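User: quick one, sequence for these tokens?
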């Protein structure tokens, strides 16, 4: 009996060892490309101007005090919250609407296929292509201004990306357009997984379309919606490329977000300690959301 158990333990350890051997290359890459930079950035946040200064001095929480008392940082936080919240709400509404259209039985399979391609098109473009496309559309001499003046909606050209009044809303609109397909595809997958028996039962109970949507459809795909909101919050919170390539955080910091704030301090002002501190604060927020997301996934399982 003991020899059999010994052989089994030996075989089990060998199997575990082989499993970790297969995982080793990925784990090593994750440590080098992910964990090491995170640890370095956290360390930089506790010193004075690192990299530029050959002998940085430990300053403790002074950098955090500097960032958290900076008016520009809180302006960036306000812009970021507007950008994130409006984007998430619009993504949810548009994604849900298009998913319901694609899930309806009143359209033929060919029509649904065409609509799927058209609706999912923004998701296929990279941030650079989206930025160039929308800069052309929103240019003072662009297509959108042409229609605005042709329809006599405004006598003057609208400076969508160069006016403090509308720049943030314009960038948010671009992000909404580029991000809603993720919601649409995910919600559509959830809708197709809902049993038709539930809808038939609700119809027999006399429920109308609105009641069916609120009391059958939404509860059935609620886990998907919560996961989408959490993921979108983290992704939109870290959105940088789209903002930087359209407005660069301007005009006069009108579209400055936490990500562009960090970038400017690092690569324009060369104050890497302040940039690292801002990055750590953003990391903490994303980590908290990530913990809630993981707990939610575990609870569902």
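Assistant:
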């Amino acid at each position: 009996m003991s020899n059999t158990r010994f052989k089994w333990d030996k075989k089990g350890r060998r199997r575990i060892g082989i499993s970790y051997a297969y995982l080793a290359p990925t784990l090593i890459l994750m440590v080098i490309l992910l964990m090491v930079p995170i640890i370095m950035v956290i360390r930089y946040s506790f010193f004075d101007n690192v990299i530029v200064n050959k002998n940085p001095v430990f300053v403790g929480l002074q950098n955090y005090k500097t960032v958290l008392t900076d008016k520009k940082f809180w302006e960036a936080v306000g812009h970021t919250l507007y950008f994130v919240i409006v984007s998430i709400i619009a993504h949810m509404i548009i994604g849900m609407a298009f998913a319901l259209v694609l899930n309806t039985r009143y359209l033929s399979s060919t029509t649904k296929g065409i609509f799927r391609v058209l609706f999912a098109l923004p998701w296929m473009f990279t941030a650079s292509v989206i930025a160039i496309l929308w800069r052309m559309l929103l240019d003072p001499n662009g297509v959108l201004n042409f229609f605005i003046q042709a329809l006599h909606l405004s006598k003057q050209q609208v400076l969508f990306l160069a006016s403090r009044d509308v720049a943030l809303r314009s960038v948010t609109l671009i992000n909404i357009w580029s991000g809603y397909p993720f919601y649409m595809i995910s919600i559509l997958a959830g809708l197709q997984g809902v049993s038709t028996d539930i809808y038939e039962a609700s119809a027999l109970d006399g429920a109308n379309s609105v009641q069916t949507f609120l009391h059958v459809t939404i509860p059935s795909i609620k886990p998907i919606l919560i996961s989408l909101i959490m993921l979108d919050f983290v992704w939109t919170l870290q959105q940088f490329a789209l903002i930087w390539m359209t407005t660069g955080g301007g005009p006069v910091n009108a579209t400055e977000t936490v990500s562009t704030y960090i970038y400017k301090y690092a690569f324009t002002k060369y104050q890497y300690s302040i940039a690292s501190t801002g990055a750590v604060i953003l990391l903490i927020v994303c980590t908290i959301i990530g913990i809630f997301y993981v707990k939610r996934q575990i609870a569902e399982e």
